[in-house]
Amino acid sequence: YDFNRKIRIENNPDYANSKALVYLITFQGEGETFYKVGFTIEGIKERIRKIPYAMIDVECVETTVKRAHKLEREFKQIIEPYAYRPKINFAGYAECFQPAPLENKTSKLS
């Protein structure tokens, strides 16, 4: 999917320069709390419509599809060690993560 999107961005300047939202959403439900990162051209409400968890918080940045795709890939690399698979599958479940415990963060600083 990511490869097809990259080809579309490279071959279609109108699509590459169209408006997109990069998002970070906090979800909760089924005894879980996790985050999802991604981007959409449809809007947040449409994007989360089929996600079977309650949206607790959302942060968005508006940019172009080309820039959103780049930001999403970079962010996914950063969060890879914190990947989290929700109990209920949905489109985009592989883009979910949980933060590292606080003690892990502080030990890396010393």
Annotate the secondary structure layout.
Blueprint: H1 2-11, H2 13-16, E1 19-29, E2 32-40, H3 44-48, E3 54-64, H4 65-79, E4 96-97, H5 102-109
Please, could you describe this protein's structure?
There is one protein chain. With 110 residues, the protein is of the alpha+beta class. Helix content is 38%, strand content 30%. A 4-stranded antiparallel sheet has the order 3-1-2-4. A hairpin with a 2-residue loop joins strand 1 and strand 2. The C terminus is likely disordered.
Q: Give the amount of beta strand, in percent.
A: 25-35%
Describe the biggest sheet?
4 strands, antiparallel
Low-confidence stretches: 102-110
The beta-strand count equals 4
Shape: globular
> What is the average per-residue confidence, as pLDDT, rounded to a whole number?
87
> Order of strands across the biggest sheet?
3-1-2-4
> Helical segment tally?
5
**Helix share of residues?**
25-40%
Report the structural category. alpha+beta
Give the end-to-end Cα distance, rounded to a whole number of Å: 40 Å
Return the string of H and E elements. HHEEHEHEH
What is Rg?
15 Å
